[in-house]
Amino acid sequence: MSLSTKRALAESFEKLLSKRSFDKITVKDIVEDCGVNRQTFYYHFHDVYDLIEWIFQDAAENINASTLDYDDWTSGLEILMEFLQQNRTLILNAYNSISHEVVGNYIKQGLRPYCAAIVEHQASEMTQPVRAEDKTYVIELLTLAATGIVTQWIGQQMRPETNAFQSMERLKTAMNGTIQLMLKNLGGEPDSFPTHR
Questions:
Q1: Model-level pTM?
Q2: Domain spans of the chain?
Q3: Which residue among 52, 58, 108, 176 is least crowded, i.e. fewest CB within 10 A of its CB?
Q4: What does the pLDDT average to over 26-55?
Q5: SS in 3 state form for 4-67?
Q6: How far apart are alpha carbons 189 and 110 in whole angstroms?
Q7: What class, spelled out in words, does domain 1-45 have in CATH?
Q8: pLDDT grade, residue 188 (50/70/90)?
Q9: What digits encode the pLDDT tens for the residues 136-154?
Q10: For residues 47, 53, 58 and 64, what is the CA-based torsion angle, rounded to 10 degrees?
């Protein structure tokens, strides 16, 4: 019941958001639309900002729980981009009214499993075993690059002529072969690198 109540509150908030700006929506508006009392809202969320964060977190968890071929970079992106486009009003309101960092963090959370899948796949094809910390580092680099492309697109108001999906495909192409090279370089012995004094 708790999860369904949270989702009902989120639906009411998103419905209100389609009619007015974020700063014009109050807890009172949300509970009236949802048909619950204020106590119910505050049982689940501290404030409207907390509700927005939960919406992003819930979406990221649902995307990551989808049955996907994790070797296919584009399938995960398509689902993420579809979510962003379907929730354009929410995303832009959150980005412009709350914090670029909050939105960026949730985009990063949504992208990380797909970046991890790419790195894991590349590592599995290498002849030498790859250390977990090296994979984690490369996953973080790839995730940050992908997150940067998506957040830049959001910052450009998600205009259709700014094709983030195409940019993501270019990133994938650019990273082909590079991931294994980075993993190999990171796994090298310390004395194989030049030292600067």
A1: 0.70
A2: 1-45, 53-188
A3: 176
A4: 92
A5: HHHHHHHHHHHHHHCCCCHHHCCHHHHHHHHCCCHHHHHHHCCCHHHHHHHHHHHHHHHHHHCC
A6: 34
A7: mainly alpha
A8: low
A9: 999 999 889 888 888 888 8
A10: -170
